[in-house]
Every structure is written in C-alpha cells, then in structure tokens.
Amino acid sequence: MSPAQANQPLPSGFALEGYRIERQLSLGGFSIVYLATDPHGKTVAIKEYLPNSLALRAGENPSPVISPVHRRVFDHGLSCFFEEGQALTLLDHPNVVRVIDFIRANGTAYLVMRYEHGHTLLEHIHKHPKGFDENFIRWVFSRLLGGLRAVHSHRLLHLDLKPANIYLRLNGSPVLLDFGAARQVIGNDAPLLRAMRTPGYAAPEQGGPREGLGPWTDIYAVGATLYTCLGGDTPPAAEDRLVEDKCVPAGQRWAGQYSQELLQTVDACMALDPLARPQSVHALQKLLDSEERSFAGALDKLRVRVRKWWRR
C-alpha cells in the first residue's frame, strides 16, 4: 500500500442523491464524515468510504483515483463497507448511531446517519481531567454496553472503541459512533483491509491473526476507555505492555477514590490475555450490574450510619 495521502473532501453545496453536503466534520484513515441536509432540510451526518492509502480525490472530480495495484483491495473494502451499511441499517438501538440510508455514487459508497447534538466523551474527559463521579461512569457505560451488545448480536465487531468514538448527547446518554473499523464480520474468512488501531485502546490480539479477535477484543477497549475516564490519560499501548507492562493497575492507582469492584472490573477488561477478560458484553453487564447493586447498597448503609450519627 502507498503511504497515507491527503484526500480532498466533497465541497460545500455538493448534491449527493438528494442530500446537500454542508461541510466536513472529520477525516479518518478510512473515511470522511460530512454534515449534510436531507431533501426535507433535516440535518444528517454522511460518512464516505475513502481509505487514504488506496484512493485519492483531487481537483473537481468527485470520483477518487485508484491505481490498478490497489483496485482489488479498495473493492474488497467497499464490499465490506456495503455489508456493514446493510447490517447497521437493521440495527436500531438508542445507544448506537442510527444509519438511515446507504448510497452508491462517485465510485464509492456513503452511509447516511442520524445527526446527534452533543460532544464526544474525549471532549468531556478534557473538560474533567481529574476523573468523573462513579455514578456518572456507571450510568454512561451501562447504556453504552447495551449498544455494544446489540452490535455484537449482529455478528459485528467495532474494533476502534475509544473516547473519541463515543458521543454524549445533551442529556448525557452515550452513542457508539464510527464503525470504520467494524468491517470485520465474525465468521467471515475473506481477507480484510488492515485495521486502524488506536494505541492504548486496541487489544494486543489486534496485531495478530484475525482468528483471535472476538467480543473480548472490544471489551479490552471498554476497559481502556474506563481507565481514561478515571484519570484523564490514555493507558500504555498493548504492544508496549507485552514487552514491559508499565500500566499501573486501576485497583492500585485509584484505590480509595472509586469502589474496588469497579477498579477490579477495569483491570479484568484490560487483561493482556484475552481469556482472562469477560468473554462477552453480557458477562460484563452482569458484573457491572451486580457491582452497581453492591455499590448502591454500600451507599445506603453509609447514609444510615450518617443519619444515626447526626441524631446523637
């Protein structure tokens, strides 16, 4: 593959099958995301498949230029993107971004998604670098895991779960975004584009054969995202931890600041051995739910003791 190159986004005002491109929202290794309006004037987000190592758009031609040496890989990625789009249009969950349309045009493909108002979890972390209240963390992640479980039920893996890909609506409810790395359908033996891995959040097995990937791979990213929520910084990359693990366990780093049950769960999710992690989102949900009841019960007992002390 050629080195990554700068792709030119579609211009403001560009007409795309009845939608109007307003401006670019973000640019990633696999795609460009735009703010757009639908035929009724409603705001939507549109993601364009345009891997910058395979295709180049320059000048006024909206169709990217793809060299013959890259055509097979580009077409395979396009096929996976199409299958992903089909799967996501069937996935209707309040904590997963809603895909409402799929378009083939300009030699590539586009996902039309519901536009959400709010900000990313990463932005929220930057505003609160010393960490969040445990109740807030549990509230957000219990809903986020519901969305991730729905994704896995459609035999999809996300493979790029991180604070930047989690959106918080104005009411705080999370939305799982950007399935650009979710081209991998569990059980599909077709060759894949090289996955985009984010250091600190990507599980160690993402650097190896795809047969080792599964729900536990996304669970590592959940643990790493929780770790960032607790302290504001990204944990060390998994490949570095395999050489020398300098990641201070959550149970040690934040002892006394959060419940030991929550900290132990974070460490379990971030285990380098995939078999040492919760093996499914359902298992992780059960763990967090039981901890939440335990945590709430401990708070109730504390309130009772405080009331008794106050009445003395």
Short description:
This protein is of the alpha+beta class.
> What is the overall pLDDT average?
86
Give the spatial strand order of the biggest sheet: 1-2-3-4-8-7
Radius of gyration, in Å, reads 21 Å
| Strand element count | 11
Shape: globular
Describe the structure.
By secondary structure, this protein is α+β, with helices and mostly antiparallel strands. It contains eight helices and eleven strands. Strands 1-2-3-4-8-7 form a six-stranded antiparallel sheet, covered by helices on one side. Strands 9-10-11 form a three-stranded antiparallel sheet. The longest helix has 31 residues, at 281-311. The chain is globular, with a radius of gyration of 21 Å. 35% of the residues are buried.
List the helices and strands and how they pair.
Layout: E1 15-16, E2 19-27, E3 31-37, E4 43-49, E5 55-56, E6 65-66, H1 68-89, E7 99-105, E8 108-114, E9 118-120, H2 121-127, H3 134-153, E10 166-169, E11 174-176, H4 215-231, H5 238-243, H6 250-253, H7 260-269, H8 281-311
Antiparallel strand pairs: 1-2, 2-3, 3-4, 4-8, 5-6, 7-8, 9-10, 10-11
